[in-house]
Amino acid sequence: AQSVAQPEDQVNVAEGNPLTVKCTYSVSGNPYLFWYVQYPNRGLQFLLKYITGDNLVKGSYGFEAEFNKSQTSFHLKKPSALVSDSALYFCAVRDRGSSGSARQLTFGSGTQLTVLP
Amino acid sequence: NAGVTQTPKFQVLKTGQSMTLQCAQDMNHEYMSWYRQDPGMGLRLIHYSVGAGITDQGEVPNGYNVSRSTTEDFPLRLLSAAPSQTSVYFCASSYGIRAENTEAFFGQGTRLTVV
Questions:
Q1: Coil, strand, or helix at residue B79?
Q2: CATH architecture of the domain covering A3-116
Q3: N or C: which end of chain B has fewer CB within 10 A?
Q4: How would you label A78-113 residue by residue, b for 16+ Cβ within 10 Å and e otherwise?
Q5: Which of B38, B100, B110 is the best residue to mutate to test the A interface, defined by the most A CB atoms within 10 Å of its own CB?
Q6: For the CA atoms of chain A, what is the radius of gyration?
Q7: B89 min Cα distance to partner chain A (Å)
């Protein structure tokens, strides 16, 4: 069964500093990986995805993520954080080698990012 | 183009009552799904559908039914509400029947409280 771990419930960073939100995954085959962001009282919004190819993926709002197969990680990064980046971030995985319900998106528990002014 | 629309936004039910959460999308997406979001647990898949007339169970299907009579609509029915079903419910849709490598579009959510 596939799984996603977001080891930090809360990440605090000062505005202008780089930020990292960690994600590790477990799948039996090769993964499709996604990052979503959720602002208060809103649905999830897609940020970026890794399907194949370049391990460094660039997404919306200046975010990027690096796929590391040996470490089974897909950490979200941004060079310079903004106060408006404060939100709940979810990592998600699909195992391209599975079938049925196991092929569906599995989400991590989420990381609350707070950017301090 | 409204995307994914969920109604109602808020609902309070008494234990044992039934209700239907509505979800509609106008993007002609084949794949639709329902998730519940609970604190510290992320989103868990309840049911999903890969096209009209086809539905399947996800991780936490007990107590819920779905149907997919049209491409646009994917309602979620609570058969007999229980306090354990207090949660925020999200509907999502994706392009493509397999939807493996495409991102999901989410509705705004329905906050359900069962008392």
A1: coil
A2: Sandwich (2.60)
A3: N
A4: beebeeebbbbbbbbbbbbebeeeebbbbbbbbbeb
A5: B100
A6: 14
A7: 10
Q: How remote is the C-alpha of A7 from its chain's centroid?
A: 12
Percent of chain A with pLDDT over 70: 94
What are the tens digits of pLDDT across the range B54-84? 999 998 999 999 999 999 999 999 999 999 9
Cα torsion angle, A107, A42, A59, A78, sign: negative
Q: Which residue has the higher pLDDT, A109 or B102?
A: A109
Q: Mutating which of A101, A103, A111 best tests the B interface, going by the most B Cβ atoms within 10 A?
A: A101
B-chain residue closest to A52, CA distance: B101
User: CB-based contact (8 Å) between A67 and chain B?
Assistant: no
